[in-house]
Amino acid sequence: MPLTAIPFIDSLLAPFRRKRDAAIQFYSQILNNHFPWYKRLDTISAQKFAARVYHFRRSKNFHFLEMESNEEIEVLVSAAAVQLTFGLPEYNYGFFEDIYIIKGAYTYG
Question: What's the confidence (pLDDT) of residue 4?
């Protein structure tokens, strides 16, 4: 029996679902403004993508070095990671717990 079939459980989960849905809607706005690939997705895929971005972001610890914490950057970095695995069943990069955002441009060597 699904959890939504039990009214008591459903009433307990409703505030969490509303918070999640509001966050996903906010993420969709950010993605529409800054992530051209997202705009090309059909409605169902866009919803799935935004939900995956939400779950990815919630499962990681973001650290900002030499700059202020920025929710928009966290969403865009999460979207870039999810885009690489979109269409695959596993997308959460379980081996990465911490993601560091550095103010300067990335350089190698």
Answer: 53
